Amino acid sequence: MTTSAPIIDGGYMHNRRTFLKLLGLGAISIPVAELALHSGKLISQAYAGSALVTPPGHYFTSWIGNSFAGKGSNGQGRWVQDEIVAMTVTGDGTLLTASLWDEAGRCTGLYKDGDTNQQCLMAEGEGKANAWGWGTAGTSVAAVDGWIFISNTAGHLLQFRWTEPGNIQSAIHYQGYETTGLVTAMAARSGFLAIAGKDGKIQIRQVQDMRLERELPIPGVRGIAINAQNTLWILQGSNIRHVGLDGQMLPGTIPHMDQTTALSISPDNSLLVCDNGPRQQILQYNIDAAPRLVARYGLEGGLRAGTPGEMAPDKFFALRGTGMDTQGNLYVGMCFGPNPNSPVVIRSLDRHSKPRWELSKYAWVTAFCFDPLHDGTVVYGPESIFSYDPAKAPGTGWKATAITLDPIRYPHDPRIMGKNACSTEIRHIQGKRLLYTMGQVGGGYDLYAFEASPSQIAYPVAAVKGDGFAWNVDARGGIWRGQTPDQHIWHYAFASWSDAGIPQFKEPVRYPIPSLFTRVTRAHYDSASDSLYIGGYTNEKPKKSWGLIGAVIARYDQWTNAHPQLRWAINTPLDGHDLPPKAFDIAGDYLFTVAVFPTHGKDAVVTIFRLEDGKKVGTISPGQSVGSQSGWIDMIHAIHALRRKNGQYLIMVEEDARGKNLVYQWTPSKADTGVSSLGDT
Fold first, then answer.
1. Does residue 65 have a pLDDT over 60?
2. What is d(CA 21, CA 598) in angstroms, rounded to the nearest whole number?
3. Which of 416, 471, 406 is nearest to 438 (CA)?
4. How far apart are CA 506 and CA 679, in angstroms?
């Protein structure tokens, strides 16, 4: 019997909370649904687990998903931030961004000539205390005459003085703040600021001292720009209106702009408009008299142009802001959001629309996966596809080739607006691709099919949901669930595709939980060997915290037969907080776990075990290419591994702190005889 996309009642919980290791903030506990206890089989020896042992062979650390390595101490280093809410561009080509969230506090970024500022902007005192990112988490940003202004989420207008405008590495000094209330848009020009408030008023303030000169009662403003005549162009509702500084409406309304996201004025006094609707273009209007459309930038249709989803410099998407410098170079900021899980792409094109530079970030609370058909050279994220060349220097081998999310055609896609904080799996089943995404704390899978070739766009087709962390996708596309209402391990085998392109799964086969375990928190099936790897807790080793793989991992062979055989059971390694690992995966001859907290001063330690006998082989951790740094591991499927045809292993691990996934490239030697996992120190 088959069912069309079984929907299992239960809680799907998305939580933006993640561990903030770089800022010293602790984890927030999330309750786990209680499970009935089963009789347990004792494991006689304790495993210290925290010993760090270099594995035989050699490895180095690379990364995918951010233009920069993120090296640097707290508040310093280069990385593209987690999201863009708003942006502005100065005449010399400096692009400044505002965001509500960046994990490591880089809520305002400066970008120029393909580089970014190393020192994060920081407020002081009360201005720092009331918003994330040293007070800079904000809704808008403006810059003029060596001044930088940020409207933060506490309703404060922060003022910074720039010692050397145009030099993004020069000192930027905090000057103070004024209370303005929450701001929806802001622009600066000729010594004054125009600030659109959520309270329905536009404040006109002096740049030098932020002194309030007047307030204009104009509600519903979503964007604002100031032209050379010091009049305002505002995005109000679905219209762009022309307004004087006295609040009087002036001639020049541009109607029916309901999908516009941002406005700016170019150095030649034209109006630039981000059209985030089906056109996905930057529109340029001559506003010397009645507004007249004079140019469009980007291919019409954005990602839909040409091969749908395929990336190209002149294909825009998710437009958040634009601007132009005095040389006529165009700058475009893209992000589905506001949403820190979204890809962030910042591009500069010359006056002939040829690419100058591009910077990007594709991961936050995101775990990529390898395409099993391409030997590690193709990687999938929740809404992105990458090519990857392991032979290249760290951080240089990856390139985003496609965006698989189309919010115009599929506005109800769960990946939009914060629901793509997830791990991914890609399977090729009966000639079609099926993308599986799993939320940060489990709860089942959302499933996405792909449009007909050559399109790279995926769209939601089904969901398999329910409580718990013990979910896994096998090599044949079947779904395994280890925490179920009847306390069994369920397997939904893939059956077929319907005529409408919907994946069909068989009714679940139910397997008893082995008596060793009182609580199953992971169930990973290996189709090639008919083995199930179970993570969980026993009577002797009870649960310590939420979402971990458990204190014990066991391998059961001949799992689908009537009497599966326990091959081995090991106690999992403990991190510096005495917690078991957060995630594990298997590939080739090995099982890989990854720790939540640092172990002996090493971040996010990956421990390697032999599949044959469960013996420990060694440990790896972030290398110098990324400053030996990683954030705390925060996802139940935070690690993906693959053995390449040449014998090399690729181990990819979530890295939230500075927006990427780490990739360890490990070539084992023949000396990996293993260290006993029981009693090892």
1. yes
2. 9
3. 471
4. 42
CA torsion through residues 515, 517, 518, 520, sign = negative
525 within 8 A of 480, measured Cβ to Cβ: yes
Q: In Å, what is the CA distance from 668 to each residue of 51, 585, 608, 609, 618?
A: 19, 17, 11, 12, 10
Please give the Cα distance from 47 to 32 (Å, whole number). 25
CA distance 103 to 658: 7
Contact 278, 426 (CB under 8 A): no
Among 433, 479, 438, 503, CA closest to 3: 503
List, edge to edge, every strand of the sheet that includes 147-152: 138-144, 147-152, 156-162, 172-179
Instruction: Starting at the earlier edge strand, list the strands of the sheet with 488-492.
Output: 471-473, 479-481, 488-492, 509-512
Q: What six digits make up the tokens of 586?
A: 């298997």
Reply yes or no on whether the pLDDT at 382 is more than 70. yes
Question: By the 8 A CB rule, do 481 and 470 touch?
Answer: yes
- CA nearest to 168, candidates 90, 248, 110, 234: 110
Q: Which helix (H) or strand (E) holds 664?
A: strand 660-667
pLDDT band at 512 (very low <50, low <70, confident <90, very high): very high
Tokens 């933060």 label which residue? Answer: 152
Q: Which residue has the tokens 């490990």?
A: 666
Please tell me the least confidently modeled range out of 32-46, 168-182, 529-543, 611-625: 32-46
The structure tokens 């069309």 sit at 4
Of the candidates 576, 567, 533, 565, the one whose C-alpha atom is nearest the C-alpha of residue 552 is 533
First to last CA, the chain: 50
Give ∠ CA 298-301-305 in degrees, rounded to 5: 85
Tens-place pLDDT, residues 481-496: 998 989 899 999 999 9
Q: In the structure encoding, which two tokens stand for residue 432, read together? A: 């079609």
Q: At a CB cut-off of 8 Å and minimum separation 6, what does 384 contact?
A: 343, 362, 400, 402, 403, 404
SS3 624: helix
Torsion over CA: 248, 249, 252, 254 (sign): positive
Is 283 within 8 Å of 261 (Cβ atoms)? no
So what's the pLDDT on residue 546?
87
> How many other CB atoms sit within 10 Å of the CB of residue 644?
17
Nearest to 321 by CA among 301, 303, 347, 295: 347
Q: Phi and psi at residue 303, in whole multiples of 5°?
A: -65, -20
Strands of 2-4's sheet, edge to edge?
2-4, 503-506, 494-497
Q: How many helices (H) and strands (E) does the chain have?
A: 1, 51
The one-letter amino acid at 536: G
- The Cα 400–Cα 404 span in angstroms is 11
Q: Which residue has the tokens 């022309």?
A: 242
* Rounded (10°) CA dihedral 477, 482, 486, 488: 90
- Please, are residues 110 and 136 in contact by the beta-carbon 8 Å criterion? no
CA 383 to CA 375: how far, in whole Å? Answer: 21
How many angstroms separate the CA atoms of 447 and 485, rounded?
22
DSSP reduced 3-state for 311:
coil
In the chain, the amino acid numbered 260 is: T
Indicate the helix (H) or strand (E) that contains 600: none
pTM: 0.91
**Residue 49 DSSP class:** -
Tracing tokens 């990364």 back to the chain, one arrives at: 63
Q: Which amino acid is at 131?
A: A
Distance between CA atoms of residues 445 and 422, nearest Å:
10
